[in-house]
Amino acid sequence: MRNWKTAFCAILCMAWLLGTVALPAQGEGGPSMIGYSVEPVLPDNQVSGSKANFNLMVTEGDSQSLYVTISNKADEEIQVAAQVGTAVTNENGVIIYVPNADASHAVSMSDILTPGEQVITVPARGSALAEFFLTVPEAPFEGSVFGGITFTKLNQDQASGEGGAMQIRNVYRYVISVRLRHAVSDISPEFKLLGAKADFARRSPGVALRLSNPRPVIVRGAAMRVSIQPKDGGEAVLTADKTFDIAPNSGMNYFVHVKDTKALPAGEYVASVIIEHKELMWALETPLIIE
Predict the structure, then answer these.
(1) How far apart are alpha carbons 130 and 126 in whole angstroms?
(2) What CA dihedral angle connects 233, 196, 254 and 173, to 10 degrees?
(3) In angstroms, rounded to a whole number, what is the distance separating the alpha carbons of residues 196 and 177?
(4) Among the listed ranges 47-56, 208-217, 235-244, 267-276, which one has the minimum average pLDDT value?
(5) How many other β-carbons are positioned within 10 Å of the β-carbon of residue 132?
């Protein structure tokens, strides 16, 4: 058991970088695919909605335990690592959960929700209860604090390789999201375009845009239209469309691929972004200089 606990932190960190597949708590075909499943035990302060995730109404300074049932379908004992992360947004416009949030988060889920055991042993053809300790900040917060619990099954094939090298292949993870609120409130998102720069060093060159949602609200299914045109006017030399999600108080890097770098010769450009979400629309611009 001690060896599993020693190895689990390194395994999870590597899993973010190598081939992994994240599944929702009740992912389609999940248990039959990977041999186990997870299910939250919903507390009394659960807000109506999805039964596969925690959506809690909380009070300043309160503390409580959250529980997740891990069911093992295999004929042998398994070890499952649990990691709490704060919601951020990746380059594909997908919300993910990382243990260390950036400074834009007033409250980080990974600071206020901790696992009782970082590695849970689940008996063959049985189940185990994973406990997590939640301490709500004394100071009130606006909107939502959003994060998630990631479950990763550990096994010898994932934890070792030839010559002791770490090798992780086809790692399937379950994710249970956790949302905390003080009250049901209608908070509008806000988008900012923080900058744009050309990146022709990638295998697929293009333009990297930096977007930000500085408000404590989750945005799902926003539509973005990007166009890049010469500063002195004229037709757009590059366009792209994207549907994305973005976490509260979260930044997002969006990369617009360029098939032909000759379409973006050195010069001064303007990157324009139109974002639509429900009945709201934002028109954003930032200069782009290609040297």
Answers:
(1) 13
(2) 180
(3) 31
(4) 47-56
(5) 21
